[in-house]
Design a protein that fits this description.
Blueprint: H1 12-49, E1 56-60, H2 67-83, E2 87-91, H3 98-104, E3 113-118, H4 124-129, E4 137-145, E5 148-153, H5 161-169, E6 175-178, H6 181-193, E7 199-202, H7 205-215, E8 220-224, H8 228-233, E9 236-241, E10 268-274, H9 279-294, H10 299-308, H11 316-338
Parallel strand pairs: 1-2, 1-3, 6-7, 6-8
Antiparallel strand pairs: 3-10, 4-10, 5-8, 5-9
Helix pairs in contact: 1-9, 2-9, 2-10, 6-11
């Protein structure tokens, strides 16, 4: 005997009750969305009205006179002119920005202290130093990124990173310049994935890599944008992109992922505040930085466009997610390089 089970059609009363419940639910959702909108508008209004309770200490991680230091000081000057806030730059270098992060962590969270560093200071460098988790600081905004590429002199005759690997396989000793332990790990993994061993040379910053190439002390090296002028002039060539996408000046260059390296470098110069920074202060400072970089005639914007390939602004939840994702990814990078 077959038994079939079917649902009985709802009664008119049940249908009426369901319709009423739906209207109530939609009303609740609508009120919640409205409340969020009101809160966002209120936060934005408070951020526009906010002013620091005293001078703002701007901790700068990059060395004095370099590109990172220059863009920080230009932004400070333009915020002072536009907002009337007093900003006092202070250099705190060392450990790839970690020293600046640790100095920032001791400052008040009321908006009177911010720091500029490169995002690995809250990623690889922080993790390698065992100095804490990314929440040791409050991300405010990025300002610029870098065209991270493997670079060589055009006169060396390499067309792409594959030629360098082929040369190493024939017995040529390849001196590979890097400017951080993270990039040393990536260079090591590139060699391991392709059955060669590079002579990895640690240098001081992108300028050190460029000087090393020009002096003949290294054969290839990582550039983070400082190579742009030489590439445009034809004196240097970008052999591969270390990003997760093409390079602005060399869109046809292969990715390191094409040669077995699953890790990439998408890093930014960024500002941050101390842990648990006042959200109104954070948003106001992020807004002030954005305003000066978008203003016509901004010296900071002109410098960043020329030296770093363009302004790159990211803030709020998007920036927090980026920092968290990179912190996890560099843990995987360290593990791979230690095997």
């Amino acid at each position: 005997m077959q038994t079939s089970v079917s649902a009985a059609p709802p009664s008119a009363d049940l249908g009426s009750r369901l319709l009423k419940r739906s209207k109530i639910a939609l009303s609740v959702v609508g009120k919640a969305v409205a409340a969020l909108c009101v809160a966002a508008i209120a936060t934005a209004a408070l951020a526009q009205e906010w002013a620091p309770p005293g001078p703002i200490k701007m901790i700068i991680a990059p060395a004095a006179g370099g590109g990172g230091d220059t863009q920080a000081r230009l932004i400070a000057e333009e915020i002072e002119a536009a907002k009337g806030w007093k900003i006092i730059p202070e250099q705190v270098t060392g450990k790839g920005g970690v020293n600046a992060v640790l100095a920032l962590s001791k400052e008040p969270a009321d908006g009177t202290a911010i720091a500029l560093f490169v995002s690995p200071a809250l990623g690889y460098n922080l993790r390698a130093a065992k100095a804490g988790e990314p929440d040791i600081a409050t991300p405010i905004t990025t300002i610029s990124g870098g065209e991270m590429a493997v670079v060589a002199l055009t006169s060396a005759g390499y067309r792409d990173i594959g030629d360098v690997i082929d040369a190493a396989k024939t017995g040529k000793a390849i001196r590979f310049g890097v400017m951080s332990p993270m990039l040393a790990d990536i260079a090591y993994l590139l060699g391991r994935a392709n059955g060669v061993e590079f002579n990895i040379v640690q240098l001081r910053g992108g300028r050190g890599v460029m000087d090393g190439l020009n002096a003949g002390d290294i054969d290839v090296g990582f550039g983070a944008g400082i190579q742009a002028k030489a590439v445009k002039a034809g004196d240097m060539i970008e052999l591969a992109s270390a990003k997760n996408g093409p390079l602005a000046n060399s869109p046809d260059a292969p990715l390191l992922s094409d040669f077995g390296v699953k890790f990439y470098v998408n890093d930014f110069f960024m500002f941050a505040g101390p842990k648990e920074m006042d959200p109104t202060a954070r948003d106001a400072i992020a807004g002030a930085i954005s305003e000066v970089l978008k203003s016509e005639g901004s010296k900071a914007a002109k410098f960043i466009n020329k030296a770093f390939g363009g302004i790159k602004l990211m803030s709020g939840a998007e920036l927090e997610e980026f920092i968290a994702e990179r912190y996890g990814a560099v843990g995987d990078l360290m593990a791979a390089a230690s095997n």
